[in-house]
Amino acid sequence: MNPISSGTIVSIQVGSPRQYGTEGAVDPHQQPWITAFFKQPVGGPVWVTRTNIEGDHQADQEHHGGVDKAVLAYSADHYDPWREELAIGELVAGAFGENLTIGGLTEGDVSIGDMWRGGEVLFQVSQPRQPCWKLARRWRRSDLVKKVVNSGHTGWYLRVLEEGTLTPGDPIELVERPCSDWTIARANEVFYARGRQDEKQLLAQVAELSAAWQSALLG
Question: Is the pTM of this model over 0.85?
């Protein structure tokens, strides 16, 4: 079977850090929190830099953002199944904290190191997304992170190799695939599996994988 080589930028979202109260806490001891998870759609062309989409910022820059995590992508194809399973309100593009909601591509269609062209921008896939507690708190579901990990519907991070403008509705097309064996789906399976240390070491040797994931796999 030939790999899927194109998708569509369904929606683009950006956000800035804001403080929220204790609503959404999944633990009674949780305090008010600061997050840029609540992202809003942008309708026109946006400028994409090496480290982010213009107008997008991170509250926790130790674990988010940077060159290897410049842009977060999530498959639009997952939304209908999540709406049916979760029934937690209006799940629209950006509900999983992503910058790019992409139709026609899922974790099984995207590989570590892939170069994808969207608009003027050349992206490179750097690692799967590791969902954090903010996703659970956003939707008031303590089990949501576990559900996302178990489903494999995590999304993936992108580097920006060539800056430029990007517009909702732009096609996104595969330019180069150096690591066809290491799809995001397979990388997730290996990362979260107990044992399989030999495969973890193989994945860690993929040059295009982010340094953070290489370190975590070998740690």
Answer: yes
